[in-house]
Design goal:
8-stranded mixed beta sheet, single chain, about 550 residues, alpha+beta, 18 helices
């Protein structure tokens, strides 16, 4: 039976105790629970897992730390309030979460693929593809990509024999394009160096396969091979921070280590893959960033964040002149490093969404590029546009794009620099026909699919410089868009790495979302088409 949340009357009785008594009780509890926690962690450790933790010691390391680095011992206390008290509490958490998952889990193609596959290597491959695609990408977006990928390359051997061009073409629009490239590199290593067999443990997966980090390795090992190893992704971070009221910065090394330790402690050794998927499913569907569905949460009775909300509500209902400090986290000395800092006060309007703490991110750096759609409208077989291939490393590696040059935001000399770039690919061109696309008109909003609303009066004075703004994960790139339509001239490409494509071929080529925006803008400026303002902003991802 799931333990019940303490009644509000009981909480009020605790609050009325003198502060000294509460402090003595918490310090005594901390000493007692620290010993029990050490026993619980050691008794629930996976056979080959690295977790042998005790209160105040963080044994696991986030991705990026050098292997062999010594364990970090916290300099300030960590209260048992942020840990699980004993094996009974852990058992309740596991059983409640798995029972909920069995009834509520979503029907997703990669789950069906893994559950129905008896060959371990093919099962691992199915999980591997899904986990890589799901990084920083929503489930709804991934479903179609995953289905097409598995239809085209159902085995590791099929993927290993594919070309990078084919991989980029199928991945186009999914973002973080290096994921597809590294996935294929990993498949080739398995086929060519590992006898076609995927490593079975998280440690060997991470060590041997390119692009496989700690999370992906743990997911493959637990779901495909049944290794009792925990995983921590964004959804699991949110669940654990709320369940144990961890208010410190989750991106810090110390907190990240603690979260991995908790994940390893909680994973069910009998059903590790299901447990890890259940934790992620809970974060994705119930314990969401905003407006979490606490009433539907299977582990609500164990949630410290929910208990804190109830205590705060009780305090507010008593109309107290002074606020009582009833926080259960009471380290012997100093500030608990897993609690929110004093500079981050509790926000009553957020409730459990006070956890986890919002991580401040640097704004993306801004860059400007002049880009040109060079077209042969009367080419044999239909109108064609020129695309050039990016280098095989770096931003958008290996993808195709319209010729472009990086320019200063001021726009000085961008026309001359762009013309030189075009001629380096296509030979002599009529400079007078290079046009910075003219003023545009619109009324109403513009969706990212390029569909425009009703056209009314010109408002060119408001937007004298048409541009496409595309925000990648760490770069805000502004494209100044040019067009050059050739009449009876057929330029000769002077370098490899460039090709002419029909408009139909362009839409199926390995091009980024940003290029599709540029082309939609160009099409909107041609005679006979509606003219719209394309200053589009969309969060996308790269590298």
């Amino acid at each position: 039976m799931t333990p019940r949340v303490p009644r509000l009357s009981s909480l009020w009785a605790i609050m009325k105790k003198p502060q000294a008594a509460v402090g003595r009780r918490c310090r005594k509890q901390a000493s007692s629970l620290a010993g029990r926690e050490k026993h619980a962690l050691s008794s629930n450790q996976a056979p080959d897992g690295p977790c042998t933790a005790r209160a105040g010691t963080i044994p696991e390391f986030p991705a990026g730390l050098a292997k062999g680095q010594e364990k970090v011992v916290l300099q300030a206390p960590v209260s048992p309030y942020h840990l699980f008290r004993d094996t009974a509490e852990i058992t309740v958490f596991r059983e409640s979460l798995l029972s909920w998952y069995d009834q509520e889990k979503r029907d997703l193609p990669w789950r069906r693929q893994a559950e129905g596959e008896v060959d371990l290597d093919r099962r691992a491959y199915a999980v591997w593809v899904s986990e890589v695609m799901l990084q920083q990408t929503q489930v709804a977006t991934v479903i179609n990509y995953y289905t097409r990928w598995m239809q085209k390359w159902p085995t590791l051997q099929d993927l290993a024999s594919a070309s990078l061009e084919e991989v980029n073409q199928l991945w186009a629009g999914l973002g973080y394009y290096s994921r597809g490239r590294r996935l294929q590199e990993g498949a080739r290593k398995v086929v060519e160096e590992l006898g076609g067999h995927v490593p079975h443990t998280a440690e060997t997966l991470q060590r041997l396969l390119p692009g496989v980090g700690r999370y992906t390795a743990g997911a493959i090992a637990s779901i495909a091979f049944g290794q009792a190893t925990g995983v921590v992704d964004g959804n699991v971070v949110r669940v654990l921070c709320r369940v144990r009221a961890i208010g410190a910065d989750p991106s810090s090394t110390l907190v990240s280590q603690q979260l991995w330790s908790l994940a390893q402690q909680l994973v069910d050794p009998a059903r590790p893959g299901d447990f890890n998927q259940a934790a992620m499913e809970l974060g994705a569907t119930v314990c969401t960033p905003q407006r979490p569905l606490c009433s539907q949460c299977p582990v609500q009775s164990l949630c410290r964040a929910r208990q804190k909300v109830e205590r705060e509500q009780l305090l507010a209902s008593q109309s107290l002149l002074g606020r009582l400090d009833v926080e259960e986290c009471a380290p012997n000395i100093g500030q608990c490093q897993l609690c929110a800092p004093p500079t981050e006060p509790w926000d009553q309007t957020l409730g459990v969404a006070n956890f986890p703490r919002k991580v401040s991110r640097r704004p993306p750096r801004e860059e400007c590029s002049a880009i040109c759609v060079l077209e042969q409208p009367r080419a044999l077989g239909g109108a064609q546009v020129l695309l050039v291939q990016r280098p095989n490393s770096g931003l958008l590696a290996g993808l195709w794009e319209f010729p472009s040059v990086t320019v200063e935001p001021s726009g000085q000399c961008q026309r001359k620099a762009l013309l030189q770039e075009l001629q380096s690919w296509a030979g002599p061109l009529p400079a007078t026909r290079l046009q910075h696309l003219g003023q545009v008109t619109e009324h109403g909003g513009v969706r990212d699919d390029g569909f425009c609303g009703h056209i009314r009066r010109p408002i060119s004075a408001l937007w004298p410089s048409p541009q496409v703004v595309h925000t990648f994960s760490h770069i805000k790139l502004t494209y100044q868009v040019y067009g050059l339509a050739l009449e009876r001239q057929t330029p000769v490409t002077t370098q490899s790495g460039a090709r002419w494509l029909t408009r139909e071929e362009f839409h199926t080529a390995a091009v980024s979302t940003a290029m599709k925006k540029v082309f939609r803008m160009y099409e909107g400026q041609q005679p006979g088409t509606c003219k719209i303002r394309y200053k589009l902003c969309k969060k996308s991802s790269i590298v």
